[in-house]
Amino acid sequence: MQASDSHATELTDLIARLCGPAGTGEALKAISDSCESARAAGLGQDAATMEKLDGATAGLDPILRESALAYVSGDLRRYLHILEMLDTVLDLASLDGINQIFWSMQRQLFLMRMDLGSVPDFVGKHLFPFYERFLRQVAVRLELDPAGRQAGMPDAGRVVIVTNQFLSAEHQPSRDLLLLAVRLQRDLGRTVLVLNTNMMPDRYYSAFVPPFAAAVEDRLSGEQTIRCDGERIRMLSSIVPGVTADKLSGFLSAVEAFDPDLVIGFGGSVIVADLLGRAYPVMCVPTTSGRTMSLADIVLGYGDHAPPADGSRLARSWRPSRFTLSVHRTGDTATRAQFSLLEGEFVCVVVGNRLDAEADGTFLELLGRILDAVPQALVLFAGGVERLPGRLAANRHAGRLRSLGHVDRMEALVSVCDLFVNPRRTGGGGGAAQAMAGGLPVLSFEVGDVASVAGPFFVVADDDAFVARAAALAGDPELLAEARQEARSRIEAVEREGADIAQLSAYMAEAVSLFDKRR
């Protein structure tokens, strides 16, 4: 079988990269760039070309090979192969290497780079059970055995919140965590201890591509006191890299000394919170939509209205409540001239921290259709990027597609825009909430955080409806004014839902009750 001539160049380049050096972060990034080019060119949908790639790479490191071919094709069966390989050596493989691979897989799923139809039950039936097995290995190999409270002890009024990553007030999940801590202390009278565990890999421990390393805020090391909304919040933070006995036993000892009634895992796959589940009640507060990986007694929803339908542990722990996104309101406004915009323009804005990946070729083509349909429209991109400006410059609508890079005055930018345009992605909920609070309508597909936050009024089913909705809003001032008011009303409703302290307290009590039954 011959590879397609149209993909010959991408195939040759990719094979050369894969068969070359792969022992450094720079080499893995170069391989990833080649995989991305091949994926964007459609190589993964060319069966003959993929067969040739399969054969040419048969002798390579299996993690490198399977992850690269998964990157190009989106085929989750490649990830199944990796999990099967890891299972055979799970008691011997480096914990840091396993952790790296686990988070790298999750990253690709989060970025919607994988074809969920290739293995529809991948997360619930394969990745989540693997996460459980990995946690058992961590506990056994590092000799972690949290003690917990004795049964029948009176309430201590203390809660531990555990997060994988706390960065700054500019980081949406970090702001949301502080909001939760403030409400627990101020409104429920609890004393809160935050653990900033930094358990995601911050460097490369495996040959998985694309490599993933999380950001770490170096100044947040040791014991911290954070002031937020009149409350003093105590935090213990470790920036020590890797999955080590000293790091994890230190966190577990701190929790034992604090003696909480409840542990809250803030986000999914919060390793330390799930390790503590053997000794304490655990509740999980997700920070994104999709399937949340957590061993908690109670796992809150993210705006979804029904639990997973598979009857799994995750389905049984799910509860229909969303903790609110924190919307930062300063009242900052601007004139269009301050952002080099004209009064007659219909200004669309795309906001995000991963726009290099999320504003891909397919999305730019869709934006091109909007620009064709609305002559007075232009699109701004707000968020740190590296490759996107070059792709915009080569686009046929180059003058009407503008990358602003990182924007400090996001609230001011929103005030001079007409429409928040959302790519197909998982994230973006915080940006959408900020936009809607400023009266900016949202245009989104029915997937991900933005759709969950925005609600049905602002989502469409397909590309044609996407273009038609943008054109309708651009051509009808009354419709646009109605959408602006709907945006404000919707985000107020979302905030009220998340501010239901009585409901939060009830779920916390239920988690304690469920723990008492299973201990």
Automatic annotation (TrEMBL):
<dbReference type="Pfam" id="PF13692">
    <property type="entry name" value="Glyco_trans_1_4"/>
</dbReference>
<protein>
    <recommendedName>
        <fullName>Glycosyl transferase family 1 domain-containing protein</fullName>
    </recommendedName>
</protein>
